[in-house]
From TrEMBL:
Alphabetically ordered keywords of this record: Oxidoreductase
PANTHER family the record matches: NAD(P)-LINKED OXIDOREDUCTASE SUPERFAMILY PROTEIN, NADH-SPECIFIC METHYLGLYOXAL REDUCTASE-RELATED
Domain NADP-dependent oxidoreductase: 15-313
Coiled coil: none
SUPFAM superfamilies per UniProt: NAD(P)-linked oxidoreductase (SSF51430)
GO terms for MF: oxidoreductase activity
Gene3D superfamilies: NADP-dependent oxidoreductase domain
Official protein name in the record: Aldo/keto reductase
Source taxon at top rank: Archaea
CC per GO annotation: cytosol
């Protein structure tokens, strides 16, 4: 396994982060794995040298955090655990979501309980909260770090101006800064290259893109997107503009280069992301040990600059997706 320093944290993380949205309960989303199968994947990831895990309180309504915590028993100190809060956890409790001090303190404690961890390595805000001033959120997160409940704080999809505002506010008030950005980035969604990624590079922010394989769209020919349970049932597959702009042509070029090199489309798509210097660790989502192993093998793949240019060429700007 290859390791990299996550932004300015000084922490070493594997170049692949295991996304735990696929683990929890199929009651939440039909394609999600239950307890035992989820743990088998997490255990294989540990065997392969992956030490970086991303979950969120909302994934399977907390089940993902519980499963991850149990699977990491005996391996807690060697692992870097990231979770997130923001989305409303209980329908009858509006304060179980958002980024108020009340929501952060209560939902962070609930995450720590489910994970069975006193301290979370990286606590991320899942989205921007228009109803809470960022200063209030940052003060609550800074206090969580002082209490020893959280080691580092990070952010996820938002506008670059909002992220800049967050960093500026932290610096002005002497509060903990966000040290990571978890954003939507892959070969068929590159809008983040305009503002967010260059900004992260300047600020030494650790970048951990989500849906690096466009939720499966970049792993098989576009006509076969419904071939898996997730392809068939994933409600966000069609929300994102993956087929717009040059998406279909890119999908075909990924297939072409994969065939030339005798590897899978998923490996080419992941390798493209791993060649981007501003990316620290893509968050891979899988329900298959074989696919996990393929992702690890993709670390060995090398793409020439002309192959990268060929893959990128058909891209045309698409609608912003992943945040409002
Ligand atoms: N911050 C946010 O707002 C946000 C949003 C979305 C996701 N996330 C994070 O990002 C993680 C990854 O997201 P994602 O699941 O959408 O990522 P993804 O890696 O883009 O997509 C996963 C899909 O690709 C398929 N796949 C993976 N490897 C494959 C291979 N070698 N061959 C064929 N198909 C393959 C998977 O199928 P199989 O299951 O069959 O392998 C699955 O359907 C999540 O677990 C979560 O931690 C964060």
């Amino acid at each position: 396994m290859e390791y990299t320093t996550l932004g300015s944290t000084g922490m070493e993380v594997s170049r692949l982060c295991l996304g735990c949205m696929s683990f929890g309960s199929s009651d939440w989303r039909g394609w999600v794995l239950e307890d035992e199968e989820s743990k088998a994947i997490i255990e294989r990831a540990i065997d392969l040298g992956i030490n970086f895990f991303d979950t969120a309180n909302m994934y399977s309504k907390g089940e993902s955090e519980r499963i991850l915590g149990e699977a990491l028993e005996g391996y807690r100190e060697q692992s870097v655990v990231a979770t997130k809060g923001y989305f409303q956890m209980r329908e009858d409790d509006p304060n179980s979501g958002g980024l108020s001090r009340k929501a952060i303190e209560q939902e962070l404690d609930a995450s720590r309980d489910r994970l069975g961890m006193d301290t979370i390595d990286l606590y991320q805000i899942h989205r921007w909260d228009d109803d809470t001033p960022i200063e209030t959120t940052l003060r609550a997160l800074d206090d969580a770090v002082r209490r020893g409940h959280v080691r580092y704080i990070g952010a996820s999809s938002m506008w670059a101006h909002q992220f800049a505002d967050s960093l500026y506010t932290s610096d002005r008030l002497g509060l903990e800064r966000f040290v990571t950005m978890q954003n939507h980035y892959n070969l068929v969604y590159r809008e983040e290259e305009r503002e967010m990624l260059p900004f992260c590079e300047n600020e030494d922010i650790g970048v951990m893109p989500w849906s690096p394989l466009a939720r499966g769209y970049l792993t098989r020919p576009h006509a076969k997107i419904d071939a898996t349970k997730r392809g068939e049932t994933e409600e966000h597959m069609y929300d994102h503009p993956y087929r717009d702009g040059g998406g279909q042509e890119i999908n075909e070029r990924v297939a072409e280069i994969a065939a030339d090199k005798g590897v899978t489309m998923a490996q080419i798509s992941l390798s493209w992301l791993l060649h981007k210097e501003w990316v620290d660790a893509p968050i891979i989502g899988t329900t298959s040990i074989e696919h996990l192993e393929q992702a690890v093998d993709a670390l060995e793949l090398s793409l020439s600059s002309s192959e990268i240019a060929y893959l990128e060429e058909p891209y045309e700007p698409v609608a912003v997706s992943g945040h409002d």
